[in-house]
Amino acid sequence: MAALLIFGGGGHGKVVAAIAKDVQKWDRIAFADDRHMELKRVADFEVLAGFDDAASGLKDFTHFFVAIGENALRLKLLLRHCEAGHTAATLVHPTAWVCETAIVGQGTLIGPQAVVHTGARVGRGCIVNTAATVDHDCILEDGVHLSPGVHLAGEVKVGRETSIGVGASVSNRMDIGHNSVIGAGSAVVDPIPDNVTAAGAPARILKQT
After folding, report:
1. Which listed residue (81, 93, 136, 151) is catalytic?
2. Fold of the 3-89 domain
3. Does the domain made of 92-199 have the CATH classification 1.10.275.10?
4. How far apart are CA 33 and CA 39, in angstroms?
5. 145 is in an annotated binding site
6. Given the DSSP bridges, would you call strands 157-158 and 3-7 parallel, antiparallel or unpaired?
């Protein structure tokens, strides 16, 4: 029996559960959330326990998925459970298209109508959200979040744990550093360094993060 335990019962957890349900692979779906005493169900699925207690019960599930929006924490929990010998699910919505030559890492979510094109490499614990597009030969390092409607042209590289806001676009061959934030609706036409927040069209650095 295929069983999926989702860590995190917030908004992103609801999205993950909906996609997991649409995939039609799982005989059982349940949640772990530290608010389990008052949060009994999420998206019609049972909340079993807090994070620590649920981790000890992962043997009852064939797969787990970390559904936490904060990039660093999502990646930390994913790697911890993988190192403990548990199997992370990779979720691809049925309406998404992932080229057979693309590589998608463990614990990554590819949302409805998203596209991951030829030669692209998407790391572990990434979110490629609704209708986001990752064109040819792009590299997304671990823990990256592309919000809905983000468009990456060819050969873009996005560093570890970076977030790109709703509707932003990135021109071809751009490098965006790790742990940076690109604001919603931005147009990235110049490289963006590590540890900054940038926004605008064209995107300009606003502050260090």
Report:
1. 136
2. Rossmann fold (3.40.50)
3. no
4. 8
5. yes
6. unpaired
Q: Is the pLDDT of residue 57 over 90?
A: no
Question: Per 3-state DSSP, what percentage of the chain is helix, strand, and coil (rounded to 5)?
Answer: 15, 30, 50
The mean pLDDT value of the chain amounts to 95
- The model's pTM is 0.95
Average pLDDT on 151-167 reads 98
DSSP three-state, residue 55: helix
pLDDT in tens, 14-28: 999 999 999 999 999
Q: Report pLDDT digits (tens) over 98-125.
A: 999 999 999 999 999 999 999 999 999 9
Q: What percent of the chain has pLDDT over 90?
A: 88
The whole-angstrom separation of Cα 5 and Cα 132 is 25
Domains 3-89 and 92-199 share a fold: no
Asked whether 155 and 175 are in contact (CB, 8 A), the reply is: no
Examine residue 202 and say whether the peptide bond preceding it is cis (omega within 30 degrees of 0). yes
Q: Where are the beta strands (DSSP E) in 59-126?
A: 63-66, 91-92, 97-98, 103-104, 109-110, 115-116, 121-122
Using CA atoms, how far apart are residues 33 and 11, in angstroms rounded to an integer? Answer: 12
Q: Does residue 136 have an active-site annotation?
A: yes
Provide the pLDDT confidence category of residue 94 given band limits of 50, 70 and 90: very high
Write down the domain spans for the chain: 3-89, 92-199
Report whether 143 belongs to an annotated binding site: no
